[in-house]
Amino acid sequence: MVRCKGGKNMNLKKLMNDFLQDYLNQNKIKFSEWSININNQVGFGDYSSNIALKLANVLKKTPIEIAKNIANHPNVSENIFSLSASKPGFVNFHVSNNYYLEILKQIISESENFGKKIKLNKSANVEFVSSNPTGPLTVGHGRQAILGDMVSNILTWSGYDVTREYYYNDAGKQMRVLAESCYAKYAQQIGKDVKMPENGYVGTYLDEIAEKIVYKYGKDLESDDPIFRDLTEKEIFSNIKNTLDSIGIKFDVFTKEGTFYKNGAIDNVLKTLEEKNLSYEKDGAVWFKTSSLDKGEDKVLVKSTGEPTYRLPDIAYHADKIDRGFDLIVDIFGADHIDTYPDVILGLKCLDKKTDHIKVVIHQFVTIKKGGEVVKMSTRKANFITLDELKEKLNPDIIRYFFIMRGANSHLDFDLDLAKDESEKNPVYYLQYANARISNLLKRYDLEISAKNDINYSLLKEKDEIALAKLLSEFPSKMEDVLHSLEPRKIATYLEEVASAYHKFYGNHKVINPQNADLSLARKKLCEATKIILTNGLSILGISAPERM
RNA sequence: GCCCCGGUAGCUCAGCUGGAUAGAGCAACGGAUUUCUAAUCCGUAGGUCACAGGUUCGAAUCCUGUCCGGGGUACCA
Fold first, then answer.
1. Nucleotide nearest to A199 (CA to C1')
2. Is the dihedral of CA A372, A374, A377, A383 positive or negative?
3. Which residue's CA lies closest to nucleotide B33 at its C1' atom?
4. Max Cα separation, chain A?
5. Residues of chain A with CATH 3.30.1360.70
6. Which fold has domain A8-95?
7. Would you call A198 exposed, middle or buried from its count of C-beta atoms within 10 A (0-12, 13-18, 19+)?
8. Mean predicted confidence (pLDDT) in A421-428
9. How far: A103 CA to B37 C1' (Å)?
């Protein structure tokens, strides 16, 4: 069982469930098909359950009749919530203000640990970006990088020991073409007429590398000199690392595809599949008998050229990750993997590997608009907008927020021309502003109020105050949801609600009032708790929480 | 061909493990500033939740079909 700091809020739901269960027990009813939902609209209590609506069929009574019965059932938690029934048959829970104010104390005492799970002794591996070093990172990779980083943060927050992993192909055809392209650029620079290879890389970043090679190694290199491959990979990879570093993303492990050729893992996969009669040769290629496993058409594992397709090394790589013993394996993939990752999972199953603990997060692509036109991005054709270019225009907080403003499953339209304009309307400022306001207020408070009283939380009874406290109390259960969905956007949405509730409270009520030091203190504590939640949430998103703006 | 995603206010999108009156930002209009930071707040206006069936006490949410838009994919990864 997971122990959770800030768990009182989860106890709230448990108490409500216990109450309903007690009603069922007392009336000797066996039933478990109910839910308890939070109410955002006012008028029907803080939470409500559909239990009476669901029971109507079973008990052959009207829902409202059952709901009224339940609401009149003896309530051992009456100091925490009271009950009512409403049409057509909801059971409503009205939580006492006191409960929320208790949570405020807890937030303040636990501070940066509020809502955080203590160490679980569980490990997770998050693989993301995994872009081959054939060119600079584009805004498309940016989405994946930010998403993966935030997912990692969410897991860390939830008690996992997280390994961030970058996997790349240093051995395949693309790298060979890249080296040939680099040689062609090199040759052109020293006046030789060498054609670009078919489907070669034409980006200007290669010109710079070729130039460097001329400068460092002279003009006499042959086309097959390993320097073209090695230096290109090294240069581009170091560029990639710098870019990631500049938006605050670091990896723990870099794994090269070549490893699995060298250590025989790929041969072993092929051997095992062959032994199990799950592969065969046709037209000079090796095929994976996916059709016999009821998964569509057979897929190629090794091309007739002798080179494996993406699937084969990826199966070997995932088998390796599984063997490393992680409790959770997360793959962040772009939409281009939608078709292929099921083959990889299937391959792993064929190797008798456990796969239940693999979670795949697929995100849709970023489409770029340049001069009003949608641009199809291709690294090879040098038709892209780099993450570095983006960074020149926008600060990292904005970039991070921009990429998670849409759910992973939605396409993200990116209009570079408008990026800066839009950034000024970016909600991230709204959150940061709330935090800066609080910071300033806390400073002022110490200057203007010197009285040292005991804190009397029960002075907080205004609607805006309770609404804010209630929202703050929901943070731990919100993080539970997020752990399940691995969708950072939900944190952002929650924080926007918190900021909004705070701005509203701030606008309607004066915190610092020397004439009423007791109330001032209670309100100050509410501000402190809000700041803690905002700071904690923003830290999971990797976004700064400036003290002043 | 096969697969994935989307269609909700003028625009950009939340809400989708079914719940009560569908929300927010931007844009528009009106108001609040000798301010604890106006990067804010309050108010007005704005809707056939693409369409049609189905499931049920109840559907934006689930199922089926259709239409429209975006994307992926075939021995590139």
1. B76
2. negative
3. A507
4. 93
5. 8-95
6. Gyrase A; domain 2 (3.30.1360)
7. exposed
8. 78
9. 28
CATH number for A122-252+310-424 (one of 2.40.30.10, 3.40.190.10, 3.40.50.620, 3.40.50.300): it is: 3.40.50.620
pLDDT digits (tens, 9 = 90+) for A211-262: 898 899 988 888 888 888 888 888 888 999 999 999 899 999 999 988 999 9
Question: In Å, what is the separation between the CA of A222 and the C1' of B31?
Answer: 76
Q: Please, what is the Cα angle at A521 between A517 and A524, to 5 degrees?
A: 135
Measuring from the CA of residue A335 to each C1' atom, give the nucleotide at the shortest distance.
B72
Contact A301, A279 (CB under 8 A): yes
Question: Which residue, among A318, A313, A344, A342, has the nearest Cα to A329 in the 3D structure?
Answer: A318
Q: In this complex, which residue's CA is closest to the C1' atom of nucleotide B22?
A: A41
pLDDT at A172: 72
Q: What is the CATH code of the structural domain delimited by A427-541?
A: 1.10.730.10
Can you tell me the distance from the alpha carbon of A301 to that of A264, in angstroms, rounded to the nearest whole number? Answer: 16
* Better-predicted residue by pLDDT, A536 or A3: A536
User: CA A17 – C1' B46 distance (Å)?
Assistant: 41
Going by C-alpha positions, the residue among A356, A335, A336 that lies closest to residue A345 is A356
Note the pLDDT of residue A7.
41
